[in-house]
UniProtKB/TrEMBL annotation:
Start and end residues of each Thiolase-like protein type 1 additional C-terminal domain: 418-489
Recorded superkingdom: Bacteria
Family: Belongs to the thiolase-like superfamily. Thiolase family.
One Pfam family it belongs to: TLP1_add_C
GO MF annotation, one: acetyl-CoA C-acetyltransferase activity
Xref: InterPro entries: Thiolase-like, TLP1_add_C
Top EC class for this record: transferase
Descriptive protein name: Acetyl-CoA acetyltransferase
Enzyme Commission number, as recorded: 2.3.1.9
Keyword tags: Acyltransferase, Transferase
Record-linked PANTHER family: ACETYL-COA C-ACYLTRANSFERASE, THIOLASE-LIKE PROTEIN TYPE 1 ADDITIONAL C-TERMINAL DOMAIN-CONTAINING PROTEIN
Length: 507
């Protein structure tokens, strides 16, 4: 029998939205929202608040991206009247809630913590609306040490090679993965869009039943797939409703203790959820240094190790909850797990409809999964994704303990670059590895993005003008074909190759 002082359990969860799509609430700073979510999580434990707060030894925060804090866990601790010994705030990355839950569980299993809080929240809707109205949130009494939107480091956007190719935003990079995945699965562009629309319609329904969802309005597959007013094409093949929605005010909190502490505090055994543990992996942050853009080596590795450690098979999970900033991410989770393609891997609702509070989305997933597991099911897999599919972490929760207690590993495995050598300022033919086009507000392709392979196996990448974008907007349908490119410092001229009877190449 595993020592109950070393078995990590979730005893309380809480999350909220402040305002909702089309109906913003009064501006509130993230710390306020996080404090309220924490109060909800503490209440959810059923334990008298003072008994619990006095025993909090750890507060770990997921980084807030909409407002700057020097010491968010410290500020929260003060508001709660807690005196934690261990506090930390993560760097940026959507995988952190899963990785932190694994870390906290590891520390409880290690005996270095007994009562921990895991928190996160964003107020990007408040911040954007306030600045648009000419009001600095600092003038509303928000925390000003240091306060303000966090300083922006262009290097966070991508490697030098990615910056050269213009691949400096998730809205541009995730469609490249989507289109390559579609090609690898033998799907046409239309089939890829159909899958995204079906999946996201199901997510919309889930969000409709989640009281913390930012946009609970029901969207059908047709609403999602068809560009039009309120759903402009952003980057092929994703219209607006397939893009993460960052302008939200949402927060979440999770209380984790040892099983022994939970029992001492009087938490009923059937209220606790066991953190079996997880696994994580980090791919090279330089997307262009990854050999295979139709899969996530880091996700595959995380899943393999988590399943091996827990001795589970993909079909053992009653609930699978994917990070869902863009459709390719839940699709990859389904593919890497080998689940049927009509699987709906969410009980949260995805970034488009539940809302996309950046780094803390998966905290809301942990809340939604915990609430669902208490009602229905035995085992859940929660997935977090950060960067450009760079940071992956999955964690397993169960209604019953694993026979060996905590079996996870919070330390990610670092995967090496696998791409071929790059060719810069190349002129000649390339086979398209993946391609996409970003659309302007006039509804036309404005910038194209291409990754290709030269006949001698080197990698070419760059961005195009509107003429190139018009060609590359065929996305998945174009992959595997050969085009002629001229690369001038990352600015590509792209021309179709029309093969004449004499095999001439013409522009
Ligand atoms: C690991 C990761 O998490 S990677 C993902 C990280 N998250 C992101 O990268 C966010 C990606 N999304 C975005 O940047 C933005 O949503 C964009 C650029 C796609 C669209 O933003 P905008 O250009 O400002 O939106 P646009 O002008 O087309 O539409 C405006 C309206 O739609 C809303 N809106 C903006 N984005 C979205 C969205 N993704 N989904 C639904 N509605 C949206 C706005 O709130 C606004 O509504 P209002 O008119 O009621 O005020």
């Amino acid at each position: 029998m595993t020592d109950p002082t070393r078995v990590p359990v979730v005893i309380g969860v809480g999350d909220l939205r402040s305002g909702r799509a089309g109906s913003p609430a009064d501006p509130r700073e993230p710390l306020d929202l996080i404090h309220e979510a924490t109060a909800a999580a503490l209440t959810d434990t059923g334990v008298a608040r003072d008994d619990l707060v006095s025993r909090i030894d750890t507060i770990r925060a997921v980084k807030t991206a909409s407002w700057s804090y020097d010491d968010l866990p410290g500020l929260l601790g003060e508001r709660l009247g807690a005196a934690p010994v261990h506090t930390s705030t993560t760097p940026i990355g959507g995988h952190w809630p899963a990785a932190l839950l694994d870390r906290i569980a590891h520390d409880i299993a290690d005996g270095t913590s007994t009562v921990a809080l895991l928190v996160g929240g964003e107020a990007q809707a408040s911040v954007t609306n306030a600045f648009k109205a000419g009001t600095d949130p600092a003038s509303l009494g928000w925390t000003t040490a240091p306060g303000g939107p966090p300083a922006f480091d262009p290097d966070d956007l991508g490697s030098p090679a990615m910056q050269r190719a213009g691949l400096i935003a998730p809205t541009r990079v995730y469609p490249l993965f989507e289109n390559r995945l579609s090609h690898d699965l033998g799907h046409t562009r239309e089939e890829s869009i159909d899958w995204s629309a079906q999946l996201y319609a199901a997510f919309s329904e889930i969000a409709g039943n989640n009281p913390a969802a930012w946009n609970p309005t029901l969207r059908t597959a047709d609403d999602i797939r068809n560009p039009g007013p309120g759903n402009r094409m952003v980057t092929d093949p994703y219209p607006l409703l397939c893009n993460a929605m960052p302008f939200v005010d949402q927060a979440a909190a999770v209380v984790v203790t040892s099983l022994a502490t939970a029992r001492e505090l009087g938490v009923a055994d059937d209220h606790v959820l066991y953190v079996w543990g997880g696994a994580g992996a980090t791919d090279t942050p330089d997307v262009l240094a990854r050999g295979d853009l139709g899969r996530s080596a880091a996700l595959a590795d995380s899943l393999r190790r988590a399943l091996a450690a827990t001795d589970l098979k993909p079909e053992d999970f009653d609930i699978v909850d994917a990070y869902s900033c863009f459709p390719v991410v839940p699709k990859l989770l389904v593919e890497h797990l080998g689940l049927p393609r009509d699987t709906v891997p969410s009980v949260t609702g995805g970034h488009s409809f539940f809302g996309g509070p950046l780094n803390s989305y998966t905290l809301h997933s942990i809340v939604a999964v915990a609430q669902r597991l208490r009602r229905d099911g035995e085992l859940a897999l929660v997935h977090g994704n950060g960067g450009y599919l760079t940071y992956q972490h999955v964690v397993v929760l169960g209604c019953a303990p694993h026979t060996d207690g905590y079996v996870g590993d919070p330390e990610p495995v670092q995967l090496p670059p696998t791409a071929p050598e790059s060719a810069q300022d190349y002129t000649g033919d390339v086979e398209i590895v993946t391609a996409t086009a970003e659309y302007g507000r006039d509804g036309n392709p404005s910038v194209g993005f291409l990754v290709g392979t030269t006949p001698d196996g080197r990698r070419v990448s760059g961005h195009t003008d509107a003429a190139g974008a018009a060609i590359l907007s065929a996305g998945a349908d174009l992959i595997g074909t050969v085009v002629h490119v001229t690369d001038n410092g990352g600015q590509l001229t792209v021309a179709r190759i029309e093969t004449t009877s004499s095999e001439e190449h013409t522009q």
